[in-house]
UniProtKB/TrEMBL annotation, chain A:
Residues at which substrate binds: H64, L65, R66, N96, N286, H317, F331, G332
Record-annotated membrane-spanning stretches: none
Name the record gives this protein: Dihydroorotase
Pathway terms, separated by semicolons: Pyrimidine metabolism; UMP biosynthesis via de novo pathway; (S)-dihydroorotate from bicarbonate: step 3/3
Binding positions (Zn(2+) 1): H62, H64, D154, D313
InterPro entries cross-referenced by the UniProt entry: DHOase, DHOase/Allantoinase_Hydrolase, DHOase_cat, Dihydroorotase_CS, Metal-dep_hydrolase_composite, Metal_Hydrolase
Organism, as annotated: Tepidiforma bonchosmolovskayae
Residue intervals of the Dihydroorotase catalytic domain: 53-237
Family statement drawn from the similarity comment of this UniProt entry: Belongs to the metallo-dependent hydrolases superfamily. DHOase family. Class I DHOase subfamily.
Automatic annotation (TrEMBL), chain B:
NCBIfam families cross-referenced by the UniProt entry: asp_carb_tr (TIGR00670), PRK00856.1 (NF002032)
All residue ranges annotated as the Aspartate/ornithine carbamoyltransferase Asp/Orn-binding domain in the record: 170-320
Claim: Transferase is one of the keywords in the record: yes
Record's protein name: Aspartate carbamoyltransferase
Annotated carbamoyl phosphate binding sites: R72, T73, R122, H150, Q153, G283, P284
Cross-referenced Pfam families: OTCace, OTCace_N
Binding residues for L-aspartate: K100, R183, R242
Keywords for the protein's UniProt record, in alphabetical order: Pyrimidine biosynthesis, Transferase
Highest taxon in the source lineage: Bacteria
PROSITE patterns in UniProt: CARBAMOYLTRANSFERASE
UniProt pathway: Pyrimidine metabolism; UMP biosynthesis via de novo pathway; (S)-dihydroorotate from bicarbonate: step 2/3
This protein's encoding gene: pyrB
Similarity section: Belongs to the aspartate/ornithine carbamoyltransferase superfamily. ATCase family.
Subunit note: Heterododecamer (2C3:3R2) of six catalytic PyrB chains organized as two trimers (C3), and six regulatory PyrI chains organized as three dimers (R2).
Length: 441, 327
């Protein structure tokens, strides 16, 4: 049953549609029916959005839902519920599951799980190589036919340049982007964090920034050679941002994303802020948190539009995966339920324009993977077409308490931190799916 | 109430030991370092007695928990604990429940549950003692973690230097070798800088830290260089580090031969240091690689003295930490 909802008096903000004004949004018959001042609808439930931002539902290009294969870390049900609470109404699921979607039948089984358990719209991403092992190509055409929105071996860069070139050529022919984790693992052994002052102090193995830049440069050249749409997953270094800017200036179809974690934190989070190093495994992420100079370059790249999207890289882990020695701990941060808070905190601090943040959470990512072609209106507020709306209170202050999260992953370095900006309500397919307890709406 | 030997005041310049654990030297204050040195002097006196044993830590249980092989550190701690009358339990990762997959946290909790007061821990992972310390009420002494820290080695090295030089303030200390992978170099650098020494870290470019410029408020200076012949000029202390042969296999140095040519401490090079400069090595030593045999056993070598002082310094640390936990 669809609700008739009138979201009244919020700052309706959709940079893609050129919307930025205090307006009402009427949601009826499963879609955003109208946007305008002083709307009325008989029998509608009214959500008072005064002081709030009303935006398209957030779109995430990069999430790990863990099912099938790693249900102890997360399931499609738990992680998409977490996505919902984070304001994400559309999520692209990375293929590092077991089995991994490297052929039609596996993809089909995952699509079936999604159909039965997902709380938000989920688009699968297919593997580039069989079992993500980097040796042989996955069955790309079969995966494309099965509905994947992109190809990626995320977490395992395609090391062989010949294989990568072939994968890009095939992806181009299929009209799909290839999302690549850009790293040159041969340049480091088990790089547990960024290589730099902190890793040297803590005696931890480091990933050099050049390992990312080298791979970005190589993949841009291969994309240029094949004409493929290359999406660079989670850029973390200043140099990678420059390389993407250069590629865009050349007119190449190269896009990229950044995570809220890399925008908000630096390598210092690994050491902690006490007198003795914390070796905080919750701050262990791949690619690693970088320097303050890199963080600022990422913010500049995002503002300038070089970086197209904010993507969570939501990576839930079981407690035991993190409660071990730092170099033995799993990589990844559980991010769905803190992402909006960190992004809007950056806006509250004046480090990021709120309009740019909204674009990077909505239309930007939707365009990278052409998602509106698959689900009309995704990432935009288009009357008669769009189906998803998120209401955000940009001034709400709250303290991160992962113990209360619905995600199975409580692995965040933000526990106890005060953030500014919270998701208040989420509408998917025209239905109010979640409302924050105690919310004024 | 501890049965303390004479002159074991437990304070220096009014400072008292308040730490549950000893995990690194980065966070130690000058006063805390001086307290360790002062206590170690008393312990050295105990060690010089005909019966080098006191019952100060009677009833205290010290466990050595080693995830990485070691001869000198482990033996040194065991002798130190027994010299103070403590009971000692030795555990190694191989042949124990650790080999069956028991986590570090479970292991230290088990040791605490059986009544262990102090756990001396060596681990091949940097930061492992911090994890242990957060999950047990027992005191953790870091006996070396990965490539991070080796605080007791740094304190015994400092004790050895101070015994000869009086103070390290303004003195020039050159540490040569594989600095990047050396927990000894890191801990020594922090301790020496805290006490006002000038520290030069020297080695092949691939084995040097690129960003390591420790900021010690009011401390000494740290220089990083590849030029050993210049670095050793006028040095008061020359400390050579063990060069692992696997560094060549990993492509970090072209050959041991080339390393020896550039970085071995030999008589000719040592002659360029200050007259009577101290020659040190944390061991175990690859004789003929880091040091030429003549200088390794020459008049300026303090290597055996380092080992002997290690017992006194570790007695001091065990005493200070155990006394705190009983207070």
């Amino acid at each position: 049953m669809n609700d008739i909802l009138l979201v009244r008096g919020g700052r309706v903000l959709d940079p893609a549609a050129g919307l930025d004004a205090v307006l009402d949004v009427l949601v009826a018959n499963g879609v955003v029916a109208a946007i305008g001042p002083g709307l009325e609808a008989a029998g509608a439930r009214v959500l008072d959005a005064g002081g709030c931002i009303v935006a398209p539902g957030f779109v995430d290009l990069h999430a790990h839902l863990r099912e099938p294969g790693f249900e102890q870390k997360g399931t499609i049900a738990t992680e998409t519920e977490a996505a919902l609470r984070g304001g994400f109404t559309t999520v692209c699921a990375m293929p590092n599951t077991r089995p991994a979607p490297d052929c039609g039948p596996v993809l089909e089984s995952i699509v079936d799980l999604v159909r039965r358990h997902a709380r938000v719209r989920v688009f699968p991403i297919g593997c580039v190589t069989r079992e993500r092992a980097g040796k042989e190509l996955a069955e790309l055409a079969e995966l494309a036919a099965g509905g994947v929105v992109a190809f990626s071996d995320d977490g395992s860069p395609v090391a062989d340049p010949r294989l990568m070139r072939n994968a890009l050529a095939l992806a181009e022919a299929l009209g799909l982007p290839l999302s690549e984790h850009c790293d040159t693992p041969e340049m480091h052994t088990s790089g547990a964090m960024n290589e730099g002052a902190v890793s040297e102090r803590l005696g931890l193995s480091g990933q050099p920034a050049a390992a990312e830049a080298t791979a970005v440069a190589r993949n841009i050249e291969l994309a240029a050679a094949t004409g493929a749409r290359l999406h660079i997953a989670h850029v973390t270094t200043a140099r990678a941002v420059e390389l993407v800017a250069e590629a865009k200036a050349r007119g190449l179809p190269v896009t990229c994303e950044v995570t809220p974690s890399h925008l908000f934190l630096t390598e210092a989070a690994v050491a902690g802020d006490g007198p003795e190093p914390a070796y905080d495994t919750n701050a262990k992420i791949n690619p690693p948190l970088r320097t303050e100079a890199d963080r600022r370059a990422l913010l500049r790249g995002l503002e300038a539009g070089v970086i197209d999207a904010i993507a969570t890289d939501h990576a839930p882990h079981a407690v035991e995966d993190k409660l071990v020695e730092f170099e033995d701990a799993a990589f990844g941060i559980s991010c769905f339920e803190s992402a909006a808070g960190t992004v809007f905190t950056l806006a509250a601090r004046g480090e990021l324009r709120i309009e740019r943040a909204i674009a990077a959470l909505t239309s930007g990512p939707a365009a990278c993977f052409g998602l509106a072609e698959r689900a009309p209106g995704v990432g935009r507020l288009e009357p008669g077409v769009s189906r998803d709306v998120v209401v955000i209170d940009p001034a709400a202050e709250w303290v991160v308490d992962p113990a209360g999260w619905v995600s199975k992953g409580k692995n965040t370095p933000l526990g106890g931190r005060r953030l500014t900006g919270a998701v208040r309500a989420v509408i998917i397919d025209g239905t109010l799916r979640w409302e924050r307890e105690g919310a004024s709406v | 109430m501890l049965d303390a030997p004479a002159r074991l005041a437990g304070t220096a310049g009014g400072a008292a030991w308040t730490r549950k654990d000893l995990l690194d030297t980065d966070s130690l204050s000058r006063e805390e370092i001086e307290l360790v040195l002062e206590t170690a002097r008393s312990m050295k006196e105990v060690r010089s007695r005909p019966v080098a044993k006191v019952p100060t830590l009677r009833g205290v249980t010290v466990a050595t928990l080693f995830y990485e092989q070691s001869t000198r550190t482990r033996a040194s701690f065991e002798v130190a604990a027994k010299s103070l009358g403590a009971d000692v339990v030795n555990l190694t990762a191989s042949g124990s429940s650790v080999e069956k997959g028991e986590s570090l946290i479970d292991t230290v909790r088990t040791l605490e549950a059986i009544g262990t007061d102090v756990i001396v821990m060596r681990h091949f992972r940097s930061g492992a003692p911090y994890l242990a310390a957060r999950h047990t009420g027992a005191s953790i002494i870091n006996g070396g973690d990965g490539t991070h820290a080796h605080p007791t080695q740094a304190l015994l090295d400092l004790f050895t230097m101070v015994n000869h030089l009086g103070s390290v303030e303004g003195r020039r200390v050159v540490i040569v070798g594989d600095i990047l992978h050396s927990r000894v170099a890191r801990s020594n650098a922090w301790t020496l800088l805290r006490l006002g020494a000038e520290v030069t870290l020297c080695g092949p470019a691939t084995l040097l830290p690129r960003w390591f410029v420790p900021e010690v408020p009011g401390g000494g200076r740290c220089t990083v260089t590849t030029d050993f012949d210049r670095a050793i000029e006028g040095a008061d202390v020359v400390m050579a580090l063990r060069m692992q042969k696997e560094r060549q296999q990993r492509g970090l140095i072209p050959s041991l031969r080339e390393y020896i040519a550039g970085y071995q401490v030999n008589a000719q090079r040592l002659g360029r240091a200050a007259p009577g400069a101290l020659l040190m090595h944390p061991g175990p030593m690859n004789e003929g690689v880091e040091l030429s045999p003549d200088v390794a056993h020459g008049a300026q070598s303090r290597i055996e003295e380092q080992v002997a002082n290690g017992v006194a310094v570790r007695m001091a640390l065990l005493y200070l930490i155990a006394a705190r936990s009983r207070a």
